[in-house]
């Protein structure tokens, strides 16, 4: 299973600490149709759908059982969730792959709290 990361989960140390094991080298990927935002003063980053947008990130090989701890880390199990885990299509070296990604929940991030990158 693939995981597309663009924020704190691009850190090998953090991701391996969360899943509890070493991971293989990630691949660089591009997620089209999304835009990057900052949410000060919390310091969070998130992506939201945006026509013409493009996010550069890393694609990791993970196990399905890793999703429980990652969902908790990304607050997708809160009410309301800060992020929704979604299936996306990522380009890696000219080929398209299916991956999971944590996308911001617009209901949890009022526009006046976001700064576009």
What does this protein structure show overall?
This protein is mainly β. It has a single domain, classed as Gamma-glutamyl cyclotransferase-like (Hypothetical upf0131 protein ytfp). Helices cover 13% and strands 49% of the residues. It is built from two helices and six strands. The protein has a six-stranded mixed β-sheet with strand order 4-5-1-3-2-6, with no helix packed on it. Strand 4 (83-92) and strand 5 form a beta hairpin. The longest helix is centred in the first third of the chain and has 8 residues, at 12-19. The radius of gyration is 14 Å and the shape is globular.
How is this structure best summarized?
The protein is mostly beta strands. 13% of the residues lie in helices and 49% in strands.
State the total count of DSSP E strands: 6
Low-confidence stretches: none
| SSE pattern | EHEEHEEE
Number of domains: 1
Strand % is over 45%
Labels describing this entry:
117 residues; mainly beta; Hypothetical upf0131 protein ytfp; six-stranded mixed β-sheet; 2 helices; 6 strands; globular
């Amino acid at each position: 299973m693939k995981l597309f990361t663009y924020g704190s989960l691009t850190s090998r140390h953090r991701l391996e600490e969360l899943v509890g094991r070493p991971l293989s080298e990630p691949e660089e990927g591009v997620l089209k149709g999304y835009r990057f935002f900052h949410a000060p003063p919390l310091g969070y980053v998130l992506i939201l759908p945006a026509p013409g947008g493009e996010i550069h990130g890393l694609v990791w090989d993970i196990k399905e059982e890793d999703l429980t701890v990652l969902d908790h880390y990304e607050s997708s199990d809160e009410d309301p969730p800060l992020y929704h885990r979604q299936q996306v299509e990522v380009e890696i070296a000219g080929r398209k792959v299916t991956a999971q990604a944590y996308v911001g929940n617009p209901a949890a991030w009022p526009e006046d709290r976001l700064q576009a990158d």
